[in-house]
Amino acid sequence: MAASIREQIMVALVAALGAGGAGSPPGLTVHRERTRPIEIDSLPAILIYADDDVPKTLGQQTYAAPLTERQFSLTLECRAQGSNGISPDEALDPVLVWAATTVLANERFGGLASGVDEGRTAWSSREGDVPVASAKLSFTIRYRTSRLDPTSKS
Question: Count of domains in the chain?
Fold first, then answer.
């Protein structure tokens, strides 16, 4: 069975963020999962996961609409630790810049999506033997599928 358009977008995003390239933070690891213990993770890291997927039929057609406009909420949780006089927040900034730039530069995901809306960023820090900062970047990705087949755009 073919993967849903949502799944294809997620795979494309994981590949884009994990590919490295110019501007990519050195040593960055990319995970597609909601939770990963900071203590055993290789930092800097980005955790990618979907939160909600909201379907809405097009043209105010309640029944038998051929297409569905979908919006799914995507979270990129970026983590970094400080070292050698660099605070965790300072170490986190290049990861946030890379993540946001990569998502927004590829907002159509090769024609799979209509576009991306950038949402809020929620910050947190954790003290302990190793001080770690994290921030969750929120995006809403808009895309269309066949109402009867979420793997197809028509």
Answer: 1
Return per-residue pLDDT of the chain as tens, 154 residues: 689 999 999 999 999 998 777 778 988 989 987 666 665 678 899 999 988 877 777 766 667 778 888 899 999 999 998 887 888 889 999 999 999 999 999 899 999 999 999 999 999 876 667 778 999 999 999 998 888 778 887 7
Give CA angle at 89 (120, 38), nearest 5°.
85
* CATH number of the domain encompassing residue 68: 3.30.70.1700
Estimate the crossing angle of helix 5-18 against helix 88-105, to 10 degrees: 130
127 falls within a domain: yes
Instruction: Please state the pTM of the whole predicted model.
Output: 0.85
Q: What range does the domain containing 23 cover? A: 5-146
Which run of H or of E encompasses 17?
Answer: helix 5-18
